[in-house]
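URGENT: need a sanity check before tomorrow's submission.

F., can you look over the Isopenicillin N synthase family oxygenase record below? I want to be sure the sequence and structure line up before it goes out.
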Amino acid sequence: MVTIPIIDLTAFTNGDTITRRNIIKQIYQTCHEIGFMYLQNPGISKDLIRQVFAHSKSFFNLPLEVKQKQAWSDEFNNTGYVGLERERLDPNKPGDLKEAFNVNKQAAITIDASILAFYDNCTELANTVLQAYALALELPEDFFIIRHNQQNHTLRSLHYPPLQTPPKPGQVRAGEHSDYGSITLLFQDDVGGLEVQTASGNWIAAPAIPDTVVVNTGDLMQRWTNDMFCSTKHRVMIPSNNKVKQSRYSIAFFCHPNDDTEIACLESCQKEQPPIYPPILAGEYLLSRLQATYGNS
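Structure tokens as predicted:
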């Protein structure tokens, strides 16, 4: 039975040489085998996380016409409100039963002090994870950090409303997909529904574990590492119990390299097989993925 490992981040940030080496090895194995992990002691205050969830709930509680005034307009900006069923993460299925609100660093500055603080905290946490990834891949420890220093990250609040009517055939809360960037940090409530696909094709639950952050690898990291690190498919299903009558909230921090970073196969990832993917600029890849996600809805 595959389980998503729980990794104590303080063992990496504060551990001695042997402890750090063991954690780096564990992170490598996790990224290689499943692409998802829970990070314990992520270094973001619970109070700040609570504030951001409260801010998110108050926004989604607004009337639709108010939310639509801040509607997502295009994939170049990729900020604003995304309404129910607007997004189709699995192109073969109906639109997702969720609404979302995207902010970048500039938008975070204008919205609320807690949102900006959270964005900065997530950036710092992501940099620590990227440092561990670099060491796991035999790279200089700042290799990924300097290629993410323009902070092109997207902070996304998500709301999966209670179901009032039966879903369309095949419709779920978030369709099967992989994330587009390098890594994602995910904060979720305890309603549940997130599922992760294992290498054998089975789906396993990834419930909320108190005081942890879910971290998963995205497509660009998979390309960079020549499939050594896997960008795992995941989805959010509709609960089969009474929780179907509850809202589910989550917050994702999509960590993306600088737009002009060339994502080309790393030397340390060519030992087992020649490069699989042609080089691509990070910004071009993100645009192509966003166009595919929104283009047909």
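My own read: The radius of gyration is 18 Å. Residues 190 and 208 are 5 Å apart (CA to CA). If you see anything odd, call me.
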